[in-house]
Specification:
mainly alpha
Length: 81
């Protein structure tokens, strides 16, 4: 059986992957640290767990949904073989 779409041309997908430069990463880190110093309830306040989440994303290179659905072996109830 032949693939019915074998002669269909695919759309070109432009390259979109981009990484922060070291200077951009330093600026992001400075803003996060400044946001931690702002009292809760005030404009610009950043929660500590938000900083941890952004650091986790930046340091691992994982996508947001990969981090959100991340499960460890210990959380599945399965024991190692």
């Amino acid at each position: 059986m032949r693939n019915p779409a074998h002669k269909v041309n695919r759309f070109a997908i432009p390259e979109r992957e981009r990484f922060l430069t070291p200077e951009e990463r330093q600026r992001v880190q400075a803003v996060l640290l400044a946001g931690l110093k702002i009292p809760a309830g005030r404009k610009g306040h950043v929660k500590l767990v938000s900083v941890w989440a952004i650091d986790l994303l930046a340091l691992t290179g994982r996508r947001r949904d990969e981090i959100l659905t991340l499960r460890g072996r210990w959380s599945t109830g399965n024991t190692p073989s």
